[in-house]
Amino acid sequence: MDTSVSALVKQFLSELAAGESEFERLKKKEQALRDRIAAFRASDRLGRDEVHEPRR
Predict the structure, then answer these.
(1) Cα separations (Å) of 38 from 6, 33, 45?
(2) Residue 21 neighbours by CB under 8 Å, 6+ apart
Protein backbone atom coordinates (compact mmCIF):
# COMPACT_ATOMS: atom_id res chain seq x y z
CA MET A 1 0.00 0.00 0.00
CA ASP A 2 1.46 3.32 -1.08
CA THR A 3 0.92 5.80 1.77
CA SER A 4 3.44 8.51 0.98
CA VAL A 5 2.19 12.07 1.32
CA SER A 6 2.33 12.62 -2.42
CA ALA A 7 0.35 9.40 -3.02
CA LEU A 8 -2.29 10.46 -0.51
CA VAL A 9 -2.53 13.92 -2.07
CA LYS A 10 -2.81 12.34 -5.52
CA GLN A 11 -5.60 10.04 -4.32
CA PHE A 12 -7.42 12.92 -2.63
CA LEU A 13 -7.19 15.12 -5.72
CA SER A 14 -8.30 12.29 -7.98
CA GLU A 15 -11.35 11.66 -5.82
CA LEU A 16 -12.06 15.37 -5.63
CA ALA A 17 -11.83 15.70 -9.41
CA ALA A 18 -14.05 12.65 -9.86
CA GLY A 19 -16.64 14.29 -7.62
CA GLU A 20 -16.89 11.29 -5.31
CA SER A 21 -15.49 11.24 -1.79
CA GLU A 22 -14.63 8.12 0.18
CA PHE A 23 -17.83 8.66 2.16
CA GLU A 24 -19.94 8.85 -0.99
CA ARG A 25 -18.25 5.77 -2.44
CA LEU A 26 -18.90 3.77 0.73
CA LYS A 27 -22.47 5.06 0.93
CA LYS A 28 -23.14 3.80 -2.62
CA LYS A 29 -21.51 0.47 -1.79
CA GLU A 30 -23.67 0.11 1.33
CA GLN A 31 -26.82 0.91 -0.63
CA ALA A 32 -25.92 -1.67 -3.28
CA LEU A 33 -25.50 -4.30 -0.57
CA ARG A 34 -28.78 -3.34 1.09
CA ASP A 35 -30.55 -3.56 -2.28
CA ARG A 36 -29.39 -7.20 -2.56
CA ILE A 37 -31.15 -8.15 0.69
CA ALA A 38 -34.51 -9.58 -0.29
CA ALA A 39 -35.88 -10.05 3.22
CA PHE A 40 -34.59 -9.62 6.74
CA ARG A 41 -36.05 -10.83 10.00
CA ALA A 42 -34.30 -10.32 13.31
CA SER A 43 -35.77 -13.63 14.51
CA ASP A 44 -33.55 -15.43 11.97
CA ARG A 45 -30.41 -14.32 13.79
CA LEU A 46 -28.31 -16.85 15.68
CA GLY A 47 -28.14 -16.66 19.45
CA ARG A 48 -24.86 -15.98 21.26
CA ASP A 49 -24.36 -19.66 22.16
CA GLU A 50 -24.99 -20.77 18.57
CA VAL A 51 -22.48 -18.29 17.21
CA HIS A 52 -19.75 -19.48 19.56
CA GLU A 53 -20.41 -23.21 19.21
CA PRO A 54 -17.47 -25.16 17.79
CA ARG A 55 -18.13 -26.47 14.29
CA ARG A 56 -18.78 -30.15 13.99
Answers:
(1) 43, 10, 15
(2) 15
